[in-house]
Amino acid sequence: MEIMLSIDENLLFLKNLFGNSIGLNESKFKILGGNIETGIAYIESICNKELVRRHVMDPLQNRTINCNLPANDIAEDIQAFYISSANIRKTNRMKELVDAILRGNTLVFFDNSKNALIIESRDVEKRSISAPENEATILSSRESFTEDIETNISMIIKRIPIPNLQFETFVVGKLSRTTLKLIWIKDIANSKLLNEVETRLRNIDIDMVEGTGVLAELIKDKAKGIFPTYQQTERPDMAAKRLSQGHFCIVCNNSPFAIICPITFWDNFKTMDDYAESPAASSLLRIIRFIAFVIAVIISPLYLSAVTYNHTVVPPSLALNISIGREGVPFPTIIELIGMTIIIDIIREAGIRMPGMIGYFIGTLGAVIIGQAAVTAGYVSASLIIVVAFSAIASFAISTTIIVNPSRIINYFLILLSGFFGMFGFLNGIFIILWSMATTESFGVPYLYPIVPIELGTWKDIFFRGPYNKLKKRLNLVAPANNNRIGNK
User: Fold this and answer.
1) Are residues 307 and 248 in the same domain?
2) Which residue spans traverse the membrane (predicted)?
3) Same domain (yes/no): 252, 353
4) Are residues 218 and 84 in the same domain?
């Protein structure tokens, strides 16, 4: 629908569309010496009224019309000669005007003009940049994304100030009208994967997109397992790092996280501190994270299968201690283990939801008191408390929070298999998990790549972090057109 030639008709249309409760402010006044009538409209709660007064009202009311102006449409003339605001554009589409006013912009109408002006005047409260909470580091940047998309983009541009940094804007959600930007580096990112991401974003058909979590679920590959095929990060330096490697980044309005895709399983264990420490220290810490993931997943089911079915794999002295500790415990080991694991997860969730340091103390005291009381009362064995606590602590050492919940699901899955089938069930469960990982893809990139399929040139930054002058190659499937990071070889 195009705008109408009458100011009154345009303002009446907006008033009927929004009603009286949204805070629509619309008015008419004479400008340029009283020779021209104009109408403006904005929503008070999200518009910077001082900016409108200074850059729109004052220039138009305090100046007279120039008789030598070219005989163009009045909106074009005023945009070119009278209004000093840099962010201004004209349109004749009513839908575009409605979207603009809902984003805090000011609309300016003129009688007998086929165009209206949209003046950037957004004034929405936003959180200041703070330190990352979920991805804390020691030697890296202290900046994190906020809920404002423009602020987030500025932090990425600051880190990659090159013209090849490309942006494409999408608006998704029939009700939320959420703005998001797809970001990539031209001549590095895989154009085939880029087209796939763009197609998935355009095909989103839903009423509300509240943030990156919903968005990631809508565009990810068809799920064949529980592993995340995307990475959510609150760190702009991590987003910039991934962009330089050929990945894509999606930032979303109203969300303090960015989506990075495609990713592999090994990306879940990398942090920005890996590239701030020495290669030896970084490699050690990365190996510890891998070990922590394995411990969080397998130590509980291994204990269960050994105690319940496969007694011969346990050294006699250790088996005797476990047997003595279980004396008088009224529950089977599988019930004991599942119950304590659930209790630990409840304590962990309670600690997360409680504000600030209260959550930390609740989690610590809850675990200590409940564990000690359960052992003293004879409800659980001391050895099982050690195993469950070790598994829970190991899960906190995993660097990427998005892989923590899958590790907990795998833990429960293996506990059930080990409880019913012993070591046979445990080994089959491990096979099922590996098969799931091997058949999973992230936007066409195999999840275990570059281990499966093999690409030896990029192994220097998987389990270990090699020296920078040795990290010469980008992943071939992610950046096929430009996979040389250092030099020409």
Assistant:
1) no
2) 287-309, 329-347, 359-379, 385-405, 412-435
3) no
4) no
Residue 357 pLDDT > 70: no
Last residue of a domain, one of 119, 134, 166: 119
Considering the domain boundaries, does residue 272 fall inside one?
A: no
240 and 323 together in one domain: no
**Confidence band, pLDDT 50/70/90 cuts, at residue 489:** very low
- Residue 259: give the domain boundaries: 149-263
Please report the pLDDT score of residue 292 as a whole number: 93
Residues 239 and 315 in one domain: no
Q: What's the number of domains the chain is made of? A: 3
- Are 293 and 412 contained in the same domain? yes
Shared domain check, 287 and 433: yes
Q: Answer yes or no: do 259 and 281 share one domain.
A: no
Look at residue 477 and tell me if it is in a domain. Answer: no
pLDDT in tens, 428-483: 999 999 999 998 989 889 999 999 888 888 888 898 998 988 888 889 999 988 88
Choose the final residue of a domain: 229, 263, 297.
Answer: 263
Domain membership of residue 247 (yes or no) is yes
**Closest-CA residue to 133 (of 234, 251, 213, 275):** 234
Give a three-class secondary structure readout of the chain. Answer: CECCCCHHHHHHHHHHHHCCCCCEEEEEEEECCCCEEEEEEEEHHHECHHHHHHHHHHHHHHCCCCCCCCCCCHHHHHHHHCCCCCCEEEECEHHHHHHHHHCCCEEEEECCCCCEEEECCECCCCCCCCCCCCCCCCCCCCCCCCCCHHHHHHHHHHHCCCCCEEEEEEEECCCCCEEEEEEEECCCCCHHHHHHHHHHHHCCCCCCCCCHHHHHHHHCCCCCCCCCCCEEECCHHHHHHHHHCCCEEEEECCCCCEEEECCCHHHHHCCHHHHCCCHHHHHHHHHHHHHHHHHHHHHHHHHHHHHHCCHHHCCHHHHHHHHHHCCCCCCCHHHHHHHHHHHHHHHHHHHHHCCHHHHHHHHHHHHHHHHHHHHHHCCCCHHHHHHHHHHHHHHHCCCCHHHHHHHHHHHHHHHHHHHHHHHHHHHHHHHHHHHHHHCCEECCEECCCCCCCCCHHHCCECCCECCHHHCCECCCCCCCCCCECCCCC
Of 440 and 32, the structure prediction assigns the larger pLDDT to: 440
Per-residue pLDDT at 101 exceeds 70: yes
Asked if residue 459 is part of any domain, the answer here is no
pLDDT confidence of 241, banded at 50, 70, 90?
Answer: very high
